[in-house]
Write a structure and sequence with these properties.
eleven-stranded mixed β-sheet; 75 strands
Length: 1356
Amino acid sequence: MSWNTFGRVLRFTTWGESHGPAIGAVVDGCPPGIALTESDIQPFLDARKPGQNKFTTQRQEPDAVRILSGVFEGRTTGTPISLMIENTDQRSKDYSEIANTYRPGHADYAYDAKYGFRDYRGGGRSSARETAMRVAAGAVARKVIGEVSIIAYVAEIGGDAIDPANFDAQEIQRNPFWCPDADAAKRWEALVDNARKAGSSLGAVVECVATGVPAGWGAPIYAKLDADLAAGMMSINAVKGVEIGDGFAAARLTGEQNADPMRPGNDGPRFEANHAGGIAGGISTGQPVTCRVAFKPTSSILTPVESVTREGEATEVRTKGRHDPCVGIRGTPVVEAMMALVLALAVFADGAMFVNPAAAGEIYIGDIVAGGDGTGNAPEDYVGINADTGFFEFGHNNASIINSGMNPELVEESTFIDSVFILETPLQVINLEGAAYQFGPQDASGNTWNHIISDATHDIDKGITDIWAGGINTWRGAVGIHASAGVTIDLEEIRNEYGFEVVRYFQAFMGTDQCGGQVTLHAILSDDLEPIDAVVAGPFGGNQGEFVSLEIPDEAYYLTLAVGAADGGIGCAHGVFAEAVITDTFPANRSVSTPGGETPCPPFGGGPIEVTITSPLGDGDPDEVVTINEFISGPVSGDQVRAEGALVEERLPSGLNEEGFIKTWLLMGPFQQNFGAAPAIETIQLDYLTDGDAGELVVEPVQGEQIETDFALAASTGLMATPNAPSINPGGIPTWNLWADDDDTINFNDFYGGDLSNLMMYAFVYVIFEDDMDVDIALGSDDAVQVLFDYQEAWVNSVGRGCGGTNQVQDLVMLNADIGTVEAGVHTVMVKVFEGGGGNCFRLRFQDSFTGLPVTEGIEVCLAPDQVPCEWDSAGVEVSWEVTRGALDEGVSYEIDLDDGDVELGGWIGQRTTGGDTSAHAEPCVGPVAELGCNLGADGLALNWINPAQADLAGTISISVDGVEVAVVPGDSTSALVPADGFAPLGSRVCVTNPSGLSACCGAYSGTELYINCGGGALSEAAGNGLGDGRAWQEDSTLNPSPFLVTTEAVAQNYRTLRRPPFEVADTQLVEPEFTDSEAGSVLFATEREFNGDVVYSIAMPRGNYEVTLLFAEGANSQQCQDLEDPAESGQYCRVSDLYLNGELVADQFSRHVEAQRALGNELPNSNYGVAVARGPYVLEGVSQVIVRVGDLPGGSLFRPNKAAINGISIRQIGDGPPVPPPEICDNGIDDDGNGDIDCQDAFCVDAANCQVAPGERFVRGDANSDGSINLTDGVIPLLFLFSGGTPPACADATDTNDTGNIEITDAIIIFSWLFTGGAPPQEPTPLSPGYASTDCGVDASDDGLGCEQPSPTCQ
């Protein structure tokens, strides 16, 4: 085959031949939303096209490119981009003389030797004509890496090199040779012209330089940037050598000559040389990326050269036609294109490419407020906008702001922001066109505080860098606006940039942070003249808020976000628009399905917990690609998470964040101190633990260790109470707790669950230095702080202050100057932070003593003194999918196979957090057998069940009838047969008790008519009751519950009104005989079974057709259950239930009450004295078990429910009953007895001879080593066996994945394809998943002579 594709995530495939009708390329993996037209590509093709001068081939090709797919309305769609160029000037006759002759130096013979067939017209695919499509694809790649500038030039032709001293970049476009040296270009004219006239050719060296490549592109080992660059360049026709940086010249240098010296710079290190070509260790360094490419002289020349024919005869050959005398000239644009393609590939391969979220349907308002364009590229220096001046400013000013000029004020530095304003009056102008909006009477205070800030709240003044809103601090972004101020976004500019289809909805969580002031939040849509629509949230106090979605009509030109002072003051009045976006879709929602209902242990024990993530599509494009991220924390490892089509990875915690701050510490406290935020230095230096064995200068903390502090001797008088975090100091004893913050700041308020004052906290960590280092310590704190390094005081500071902004350091501890070089090994850091009031936090990192740069490599953070290297438990599992938004509309799911414990769930799509369920719980199985089936037949009662996955199957299962044990079966049994001769005439209760002592029960009744009075015993006396309807109503009372009642917790309750005359059971609504007002006449259905949960009856009866009616009674006035409009107005016991019959919902939210029936349009006579309501009759055909379930509903439904309840059940056989089915014939392929199981699948055939499987014959295809799972090893085993004398497979039948009867290389390919590329699975018996179950096992259907000497334990 031919390899026609280059790249991985971003890749391009070329097609076509030199003399075919057309050539083309398909670029796949390009993100959506990038502006692209044919005019963007054509200039690069024009630079390469032939026939431009006498120094290139005279073939005349316009090379006009057409975009066939992947672009709509001038923007990429995210789907493959197909490009085509038609060939218009082929002259195939020029090659007729060489159709049977090989051209030396060309690929003619190599192609013939490989394929046995070749296209001699210009070389077919081996022609450099193909490189035109590389240039076209490279033009697309340049759009992806727009910040990078690429230039290539010819540095040498025929051994004549340019003079670097004459380098002039402007000269490259002025001559036909792409030469930066004007003198060399003049020399080359004669050089190339002479070669052309002589029928010969010349080689060339092309140099290429890419500037603007940031540090960090590429990856070590097998995805090195220079390795990909070399591969890309070497793939160009006629290229015979590639050098990166100094290339081969580096071998002639000494170490000090080859090194690229570095000095401190304003934006990272400054390099003094670039011998490495901008790449070190396979990763870009931020310097220009350089390479040199050597082109050989073309082999298509007129000078005769000795050769052979296809038949092997000697001959001479010369190539007629139109050819380049020096292919390096037109190869220069091809080198540029390959540089662009390799750099774009590096971006995507590392995930460094930020896919434009606007193209994926989201524009981040927080990014715009920070000075960006809404796609996440805001400069890190900008924090927010001054509401008075409209200027972007560093940090946060933490001061009052009043209007001093225009109001609103233009924001000149952002295309997407119209203006900012301060609320001076309730009727405030909100955009520069003059539209005014009426705020609340107290919203306008005339001043505000601090900037309008991005990705923070105004609690940042207290050192709180987390984004808090509504009591949640996991938001992925926010706009913080202090009352009374606002910002107006220009929607028209956003439409112009990203298209109308994106600007459909504004969505955010509008709320408050922890500060507690009263605010109202406004989201306002307006045009040039007036507001169009608005939503107001609040007034809110601290930690409140709500989700808001506001549809944006096309006539809305502006979106204004504003915060008002709800109580007229601005103190602590912090408004937060968390995860504020302009979007064309809706936020995602997470739902969790955990074990519940009748099944005690799903799937009968422990997990799996199923989690589904969906996002209603809204107006979005269903073909757009989105990335879904999910994070699971708790007692879960990666192998317990199953997510089809997703990448599942374990996240191991790191002690450092990307800025070098230590984020994982052992914390202890809070200790009481009465000296405020800035105690005296000598007070700070006191020992707050004890003066005994566990003092500050000797303590070696480990997680969970407690210190019996003697507070009579220690500086502190005791621990402070932490009611919101009671577990941090069990028993009131100081305890070292593991704590990690993913950002740069350790926030003690989060740790102890509140905002306490006058306290002291300890933080401790072990730091391992891999080598000797010269480092200092940088830190910030709220408030005073002491730092001990290796138990010696390195810093003490008595200052009341806040923590400062993100990544801000306030103190620099000159560690290197004080103690010298820190030696390799384990060192300790202890931090003591004193708090007077407000925030309580700190941040600390090591910095290089000479450059001041953070130390992020060469050190490890540990939580125990003897860890080398540090040992970390998994911090959780990350799951990520890449799907279309249409697929997300349907939802993606994953499973957590968890036996016991709680897990926390979190995730995001783009900038928005996934809402919905955030936790799940599983327990080990402590329940009975599940899905108990009871079927009464001629041979007795057939029982079948499923054992819980966690059940103890080593013991025995006891089966009892009415409390008397009648059978004992092995603990792993799933079925039994109980003779019917022991059943009571009025029904018996049959229970299956597993080895754990827990039972599941059902009832058995051998008759054909059954009437159950659910809760009343009076009608069960003798055979009937004269006041009833003449039927024998079976007793079901608290003292003597019905044998058919599954939910034994259900109790008989007296009903409030005891008046009801007899009625006819067959009626579906009611029958009204003459009312009898007597105690004796009141007993029919005067009581009922009710349960705060579901009430379930299970009755096994002879197989037949049955008519089932469900009966309910209602007394006079029915407790005012008429709450169609307001459920709160209903009586306490308003009965509303879902009714199920044999698992089918037959009545949804059924209400049995008089007023409710009337509200539903059911006119009920005699309602003043009570009615009977019947549901049914329902017909069940061919059944031997009837299960009635009255489903208890949660509050807040159409009617206000309260406890499931039922008065009576009528079951009556109709017709003659179905004929007794014939027994199953076990080898005819027919379901003879009609139970859904055929031949050996039927329980009747379990002992049939043809259904017996000899031990060792069951297997699953693909499990070559019989270890119970299918993985890479199972594909390697047949290869080793076939080609290197490896041991035979444990199971030959399993190794024969295609069931040919032979072990061959194809068997390994099938395994690899199925595991890694989604190929077809092995033949039957086919595994459903790599970790297969015993139900996947089977026998070989073909008699091929192979066997399975060592079967998998799973299949035995």
